[in-house]
Amino acid sequence: MRAYQILPGDNIDGLQCVNFPERELALGEVRVRVHAVSLNYRDLMVASGNYLVNVDNPIIPCSDGAGEVLAVGHGVTSLQVGDRVAASFFPHWQDGRTAPAKIRHALGGDIDGMLAEEVILHEDALVKIPSQLSYIEASTMPCAGVTAWNAIFRSSNDIQPGDTVLLLGTGGVSVLGLQLAKAAGLRTIITSSSDEKLQRARELGAHHTINYRAIPEWQEEVLRLTHGHGADVVLEVGGQGTVNRSVASCALGGSVAIIGGVSGFGGEVNPVSLLAGAKRMVGIFVGSRTMLDNVMRFAAVSNLEPVVDRVFTFDQAKEAYRYMESGSHFGKVVIAVTP
Ligand SMILES: NC(=O)c1ccc[n+]([C@@H]2O[C@H](COP(=O)([O-])OP(=O)(O)OC[C@H]3O[C@@H](n4cnc5c(N)ncnc54)[C@H](OP(=O)(O)O)[C@@H]3O)[C@@H](O)[C@H]2O)c1
């Protein structure tokens, strides 16, 4: 079977397609034919060496994949041959609050990931895909879907239907966040550097859109659009360039979910800006296998079709990375591994 490998820091050109011999399944393991892999900003960070991973050897990259069970090892009880499955970002985080043991490994980071024709994972690291989701759609869920789900529904401060969610930019996490929030009856505000992308966001049902280039003080626009109330949940993916504006956009008693740093990490947040409005900042680290199960179930019952901007073939993996790096995408970029 073929798989891509990369030594973190070797950049996109360092992606190599390699042939691997097949190995026997151990107790509890499952062999999966991978059909689709979705890319995340993190995969670019691993490639560029900007993601904290303790590995000296090349790894198979990418956390997010979906496929079909080819074989099950001794002792496997939850899955059988032919089942459609998606892999959980943290193979050891089943449920509940996180803990060091639960996040000790992450696919495509410090252990091999999903950009392969076949993978072997423990049954506990896999979740069945509802029939309504295609492999391509399911592949968008393990990182981006779970992160948005966790930020909006698990780690926010008592979100209620009709509350407002603010999404920054139109990348994978934000567009899935928009779709999940919309499906749950929440009011949505989304920002982008592109009017064309904002038009697409409106077509998806975004209630309000803001061009953050045209309106650099976009936090004031969020307050204006919400009649001074602010957003009850902010999905903060911007980092040092946006975090203080995100706090200013947040409603009293609301939550700022600290997710990413596309403009870089760093900067300072004055504690008074949280204290005075009883606002919460909460760090999000993707989420558990149960959250993956829940977000896919919710997507299925609400007929949510994750937005996939472009699908590349397995042989076009480097092009897919470069397209993601260009920032032209809206939503997710997917590699169809086995047609
Ligand atoms: N903590 C976690 O568990 C977790 C999980 C997933 C992702 N993340 C992080 O979240 C961030 C987004 O990940 P992703 O996979 O969704 O990335 P992505 O698909 O590459 O999306 C990035 C988007 O960010 C927007 N952007 C760029 N600069 C911006 C700025 N200054 N202000 C507002 N938006 C800006 C752009 O949107 P426009 O083109 O519309 O302007 C861009 O398309 C990354 O930092 C990633 O590492 C963290």
Automatic annotation (TrEMBL):
EC number: 1.1.1.-
Name of the protein: NAD(P)-dependent alcohol dehydrogenase
SMART domains: PKS_ER
Enzyme class: oxidoreductase
MF annotations from Gene Ontology: oxidoreductase activity
CDD domains: MDR7
Domain Enoyl reductase (ER): 10-335
Keywords (A to Z) from UniProt: Oxidoreductase
InterPro entries cross-referenced by the UniProt entry: ADH-like_C, ADH-like_N, ER, GroES-like_sf, NAD(P)-bd_dom_sf, Zinc_ADH-like
Organism: Massilia niabensis
